[in-house]
Amino acid sequence: DMAGGVRGERLIQDHPDGLHVLRGLKGIGATTHAPGRPPLGAAQLRRVLAAFDEQGATVTYHLAFGMWRKTMQRPKGVFVTGTDTGIGKTLVSAILARAWNADYWKPVQTGVAEEPGDTDTVAHLAQLPPERLHLPAYVLQAPLSPWAAATLEDTIVDATTIVPPATRAPLIVEGAGGLYVPIDDTHMMIDLIARLDMPVVLAARSGLGTINHTLLSLKALQRRGIPVLGVVMSGPPSAGNKEAIERFGGVRVLAEIPPLPRVDAAAVDALAQGIAPLAECLAALYDAETEAD
C-alpha cells in the first residue's frame, strides 16, 4: 500500500534557439516520442528547429511529479516471549487469544514427554475450537531448548523453515523459553521473532529482580528493531516494578496477572476482559513510532 500524490506545474521558458530546446529536452530525459507518432527523421528535425528559430517561439513545459511513501501494514498478530522459561507465556497467550478472538500457534514445542503440549493447554483455557489452532512446525520430547532437545533426539531443527500459517483472525505466536534460547546451530528465538516481523508481548514476573530481567530483554529487542506491544506481569502486583518497567523500558504494561487460586477457562475469560482491543494496542504502538520518526 502506498500513500502520496501527484502534482503538476506549468512552466514557460524562453530559449535562444531550437538547438538549446533540443538539448534541454534530452537533459531532462524527455526523449520519448508521443504515442502513435513516429520519431522525426533528421531532415524533419532540422525543419522544425529552423521554424523555431525563425518564429522565436517559447516552450511551455507541463511537468508532473509525485511522491509516495509506503504505508506501514499493521501486523495481524503478536509474538509472546518471556524474560525466562516458566514465566507464564502460555497463560498470557491464552488470555490474549481469548481477548482478541485470535488463532494460536506454537512453532516449536519441546517437553511433550513429560506433559501435554501448550497447544492443548491454550485450547482448553481460551476455549478455542480446533480450526483456531495450528500445529507446531517441530515437536520434541525433552524439556530442553529446541537445539538441545533436537541434539538429544538426533534430529534436525531448522529455524529458516518455520513459516507462520495463513489466518483470517489475529494470530498469537508463542515462543519457547526466552529471547536467547537456541533453536538450531545458528539461530536464537530472537532471530525467529525478527524474521516473522511481529511485535512482541513480553511476559515477565512482577517480583524482585524483574526490573533487571525485563529491561535487559527490552534492550535486546530494541537493538534488533523489534517493536514491543507491551509487557504482561505475573505474580503479586508491584506498583513500583510496573512503574519502573514502563518508565525505563519505554513500554506499556498491558496487564498484571495476580496469583490465581485456579487456572481455568473462567479465570482466563475474566482476565481477558481487562485487555485492550488489539487494534487499539497496535494503533498506540505504531502511531507513537510514526510521531517519533
Can you offer a commentary on this structure?
It comes from Achromobacter mucicolens. It is an enzyme of class 6 (ligase). Keywords: Biotin biosynthesis, Ligase. The chain has 10 helices and 11 strands. The chain has 293 residues and is an alpha/beta fold. The chain folds into 2 domains: 2-70, no CATH class; 77-292, P-loop containing nucleotide triphosphate hydrolases (Rossmann fold, 3-Layer(aba) Sandwich). It has a 7-stranded parallel β-sheet with strand order 6-4-8-3-9-10-11, sandwiched between helices. The protein has a two-stranded antiparallel ribbon with strand order 1-2. Strands 5-7 form a two-stranded parallel ribbon. α8 links the parallel β10 (228-234) and β11. α3 packs across α4 (118-126) and α3 packs across α9 (265-272). The mean pLDDT is 88.
Would you kindly provide a brief summary of this structure?
With 293 residues, the protein is α/β, with parallel strands linked by helices. It has 10 helices and 11 strands. Helix 8 links the parallel strand 10 and strand 11.
